[in-house]
Amino acid sequence: MIRIEGLRKTFHTRGGPVIAVDGVDLTVTEGEVFGVVGRSGAGKSTLLRCVNLLERPDEGRVTVAGVELTGLRENQLRRVRQDIGMIHQHFALLHSRTAAGNVSFALEVMGVPRRDRAARVEELLDLVGLADRADAYPAQLSGGQKQRVGIARALASRPRVLLSDEATSALDPDTTGAILELLRDLTKRLGLTILLITHEMDVVKRLCDAVAIMQEGRFVESGPVAELIGRPDSRLARDLFPLGPVPTMPDHALFDVTLTGQTDDGSVVSDLARRHDLDVRIVAGAVEQLAATRAGRLRIALPQAAPTLAAALDDLRGAGLTVEAAR
């Protein structure tokens, strides 16, 4: 659905050239929620704006729904962009218009006849749970309600792709959860494909099927969430499930165990202790249900002098778990 090949974007500033996106390749399959995560300045927003060519890349190709956007003229782009909805970080609502008026404005720009707009606006506000707030102005809405209006507006043209620019970063945790649940529901109901950028790992946990970690304009790790978590030395696993500093435990060896699929943390520990007659201690960790899989990390302490230590570690690895010395 979205394919990016060799994308580069450089900004020329008084201090010299700044490479914002440095040779990025990306594929988002139809119906997938793909997250790009990274710190401020990593190049995430520039990458997103290159997808609908609000920023035109210096090099590379962008293809959305089978159409190569980088080869289109501006008048052609305007038509194609109707198939790409955009959700903004700070809502970008018109304060002089009601919730219904903001959604209607998107339809006006598209040239939808007046007689058809009212029914579509009503349908969209109902879809995002705001049917009773149609006549409210942005100043009368909460942050979560404003973002719901923004989502309704982004869906006005019946797009197949949604781009989300830090859609929850201005919201409190409870409201964030509700918006993420709405986006996941809309993905399933409408068959949407979503590319989102975020710096919040909770967004990745709750919503994303696949993810890329971006740093200094490049992807340092990319792929399906379940696959990345299971890789040795996975940066994503460490970021999703931080275990904190390694404690000092004399006479014990500490290991970080990454769990994926339906593995239960309690059974891992109890089975290991029973089979190898070991005192297994859980030092830190958690297992959670993510959008794409059940996963987590445990830091366990094993008696360093135990004769069955090596066999116990082999058992864990043989069960498909990732085991690394804690560091």
Automatic annotation (TrEMBL):
PROSITE patterns: ABC_TRANSPORTER_1 (PS00211), ABC_TRANSPORTER_2 (PS50893)
GO molecular function, one term: ATP binding
Keyword Cell membrane (UniProt): yes
Keywords assigned by UniProt, alphabetized: Amino-acid transport, ATP-binding, Cell membrane, Membrane, Nucleotide-binding, Translocase, Transport
Domain ABC transporter: 2-241
Name of a matching Pfam family: NIL
Gene3D superfamilies: 3.30.70.260, P-loop containing nucleotide triphosphate hydrolases
Keyword S-adenosyl-L-methionine listed: no
GO biological-process terms attached to the record: amino acid transport
Alphabetical list of InterPro entries matching this protein: AAA+_ATPase (IPR003593), ABC_transporter-like_ATP-bd (IPR003439), ABC_transporter-like_CS (IPR017871), ACT-like_dom_sf (IPR045865), MetN_ABC (IPR041701), MetN_ABC_transporter-like (IPR050086), NIL_domain (IPR018449), P-loop_NTPase (IPR027417)
Protein name from the UniProt record: D-methionine transport system ATP-binding protein
The species this protein was found in: Micromonospora pallida
Lineage: Bacteria, Bacillati, Actinomycetota, Actinomycetes, Micromonosporales
